[in-house]
Amino acid sequence: MSCTCFFVPKSVLERLANDKTLAAELRRAAFESSLLSDLLRQSRLQHGAFISASRPLSAQLEELAAQPESVVFDANHTHTLPGKTVPNPGSSSDPSAKRAYTQAARVAEFYQTIFKRNSVDNAGATLVSSVHYARNYNNAMWNGTQMVYGDGDGKIFIDFTGGNDVIGHELTHGVTQYTLQLGYEDDAGGLNESLSDCFGSMFRQWEAKQTSQQADWLIGSDIIGPVAKERNVTCLRNMANPADPRTLSPQPAKYSQLSPGMDPHFTSGPPNLAFCTACKGVPGNSWDTVGQVWYHVMVTAGPKPQMTMADFAGRTRQAAVQLFEAKPEVAKSVDAGWKLIGL
For 169-213, how does the pLDDT look when each residue is reduced to its tens digit (9 = 90+)? Predict the structure, then answer.
């Protein structure tokens, strides 16, 4: 089972690397970013296996802290992780370090305030971030133990710490790692990526104080560089319109369009649309209703490495009825979201 939980899909980087209309240095940055992402994948695979094997012991663990600490390191454009400690990152003169520190702490606050979860492991795990990884690295990732941020090439992508949904997305991979333990192939892989988009988008909306109806539901819009914008690119993905041609990574919108072996960044399109549709169908904040339903399934289903989208859909339908008995519009909207994509 492979796992490449990066923000930018490998297929996008490979397409950019082969785009002869781009400058040579941009093609090279995309090519090298793709290679580095493959290498970084291995550490996440190993840590994921450890989490899975040690899960039966987790009930015996004591809480590390009442709330997680956020610490930041500077990789200084090397491949060494975590890098050099950044002292007092909250007041650092380095904007990347300051954003990584502040936004990781805010994601922790979001999970604790909204979902009563204490860090990614629900036991106060320290949130570790490394900024300035490699040179012109066009990606960000959760490697199983920490966050890794590239600065981008400055043209197609800019500093990945600049997107709060990027940070929310990748840290949610940590939450999934400690809950459903979804694999990274077929339906489970698509769900894995979709959950990170869902919670990353909710976090972005929460910080902006936006309702589901006010939100734009774009993923990665804040890290799109000037050259990409000149080509009419608005974001990496669009949850409200997965097939949007203005995205760098258009996706299918129907479950029937998926087939075995597809990239999870591609197959996350239908469940993304189901979630967005369900949220927009209930007036108010996404995290107050439909977000609670999705989170409930994440933390109550137990480890489901091969979970299908139909199974997840059924569980959310049931949870919506159970959690919001007095608000039947929630269950109705969740059902409509899944029916829209064919589930």
Answer: 999 999 999 999 999 999 999 999 999 999 999 999 999 999 999
Q: Note if 169 is an active site residue.
A: no
Cα(309)–Cα(314) distance, rounded to whole angstroms?
8
Which residues are CB-neighbours of 176 under 8 A, at least 6 positions away? 182, 192, 195, 196, 298
> Of 32, 170, 185, 193, which is the active-site residue?
170
Q: Which among 298, 288, 295 has a CA at the least distance from the CA of 327?
A: 288
The reported pTM is 0.93
The confidence score (pLDDT) of residue 221 equals 98
Dist CA 168 CA 273 (whole Å): 18
- What b/e sequence results for 52-79 when a residue is b if at least 16 CB atoms lie within 10 Å of its CB, and e otherwise? eeeeeeeeeeeeeeeebebbbbbbeeee
pLDDT beyond 80 at 321: yes
- Residue in the structure block whose two tokens are 């489901």: 304
Report the 10 Å Cβ neighbour count for 123: 16
Token representation of residue 343: 């589930």
Residue pair 298/173 in contact by the 8 Å Cβ criterion: no
pLDDT of residue 48: 54
Q: Which of 206, 207, 216 is nearest to 286 (CA)?
A: 206
Question: What DSSP designation does 167 have?
Answer: H
**pLDDT, the chain, mean:** 93
Q: How far apart are CA 73 and CA 43, in angstroms?
A: 18
Name the active-site residue from 132, 169, 173, 265.
265
- Beta strands 140-142; 147-149: pairing state: antiparallel
Q: How far is CA 228 from CA 16, 23, 195, 337, in A?
A: 11, 12, 26, 31
Q: What is the pLDDT at residue 45?
A: 54
Note if 329 is an active site residue: no
